[in-house]
Design a protein that fits this description.
hydrolase, three-stranded mixed beta sheet, alpha/beta
Length: 405
């Protein structure tokens, strides 16, 4: 379905400068469907997990990606961030699928044909089941296995892809590692569990090695990774506590990006920290369908924090959005977030792009209830319907086409 014509909003909270990346993001497992060789597919069908419902066909974007890209381009976006699925490319250890590599290469070429610059993410939470069964990231040789996979993606990324994200939210991957080991004992009333240290070390090593592999494949590719920024705000007397709390959960991963071409900021809400640690949001705070506090200024604050920690590294906002059934709140939230982003850029922070999460309503790691999409997806027919937020945000992208290289 193509979007019907709509007039461009008379006022924008943000005006993308020439060449600015202006897009939306997705993740393979969340939109493709039938990712049967991944660890998440197995988790969805195991007993005793937090998973409320399986991903099943998701948004069927494995087959419908041309329609998804058509819509994004017609709405006005200039860029599309999507991930490629390791479990499809290497379904069994050491066995690489030429057909799947060709599939993802067609996606790259399809994006370019529609005027969308592709940003390709190599790892977005899921791993092949065989990788999980051998112990995951902390198993002997795991980093080298990831590097081998990255090298195998050369047919997809080595030409015509300007930006590659090695690992999405490594800090959250390390947090999930802790939860898998400790279960509910790792969870507190607020904030994040302490990430598993061995997983953190392995991910930082894997990222560095992947960066070397990608640069050897194509020196023109700009390499980075994305970090989930929690916007830790120190309450009075909790400055030291906040710094200590933030380091293993966020800042150590930002520090690891200092040799990258860019670092991705992923921001949705804030976390307030008192002398004894994080405190829950006030009872009367507006909350999203994800249960997070509605807090649009988080993006500007996240960008400023990242700029302080990863000094001199260009920033790309790789995710920012809100899960809500009220699309007018999505517009309001995004307007507020972009206002903070514009103010940070006006203060001299080097931001190169903005990707909204998400292009589509999709599978949010256990449930379809939280709807983040700029485009609605019918769960039965898979029909796509652009939301007003998608038209509003996409219209701004037409400005980014001016002076585009």
């Amino acid at each position: 379905m193509s979007p019907s014509p709509s007039s461009e909003p008379s006022e924008h909270p943000f005006s993308p400068p020439p060449g600015f990346l202006w897009g939306a993001s997705t993740a393979a497992h969340q939109i493709e469907g039938q990712n049967t060789n991944s660890d998440w597919w197995h988790k969805e069908h195991a007993e005793g997990t937090h998973v409320q419902e399986p991903s099943a066909d998701a948004a069927d974007s494995y087959h419908r990606w041309p329609e998804d890209m058509d819509l994004l381009a017609e709405l006005g976006f200039t860029d599309y961030r999507f991930s490629i699925e390791w479990a499809r490319i290497e379904p069994a250890q050491g066995e690489f699928s030429r057909a799947q590599l060709a599939h993802y290469r067609r996606m790259v070429e399809g994006a370019l044909a529609r005027g969308l610059r592709p940003m390709v993410t190599l790892h977005h939470f899921t791993v092949p089941q065989w990788f999980a069964e051998r112990g995951g990231w902390t198993a002997h040789g795991a980093v080298d296995l990831f590097a081998r996979y990255v090298e195998a993606t050369a047919p997809v990324i080595a030409a015509d892809v300007a930006h590659v994200c090695t690992i999405n939210e490594p800090n959250m991957v390390a947090v999930m590692g802790a939860v898998e080991q400790l279960g509910v004992d790792a969870l507190g009333p607020a904030g994040l569990p302490l990430p598993d240290k061995d997983t953190s070390v392995a991910l930082i090593e894997a990222h560095g090695l992947a960066r070397e592999v990608i640069r050897s494949l194509s020196p023109a590719v700009k390499v980075g990774w994305s970090v989930a920024n929690q916007v830790y705000q120190a309450l009075p007397g909790a400055e030291r506590t906040t710094a200590d709390y933030s380091w293993p959960r966020e800042d150590v991963f930002l520090e690891a990006s200092r040799d990258d071409d860019w670092v991705g900021v992923q921001s949705y809400t804030r976390t307030q920290v008192g002398p004894d640690g994080p405190v829950p949001a006030p009872d009367d705070a507006e909350r999203t369908l994800s249960g997070w506090e509605y807090y649009p200024p988080a993006l500007g604050e996240a960008v400023r924090h990242t700029a302080r920690v990863a000094t001199g590294v260009p920033i790309i906002v790789t995710e920012n959005g809100i899960s809500t059934a009220d699309d007018s709140r999505r517009v309001d939230y995004t307007a507020g977030a972009l206002t903070g982003l514009a103010e940070a850029m006006a203060d001299g922070i080097d931001v190169r792009g903005y990707f909204h999460w998400s292009a589509l309503d999709n599978y949010e790691w256990g449930s379809y209830r939280p709807t983040f999409g700029l485009i609605a997806v019918d769960p039965v027919t898979f029909a796509r319907t652009p939301k007003e937020s998608g038209r509003w945000l996409g219209a701004m992208g037409r400005r980014a086409r001016i002076g585009r290289t």
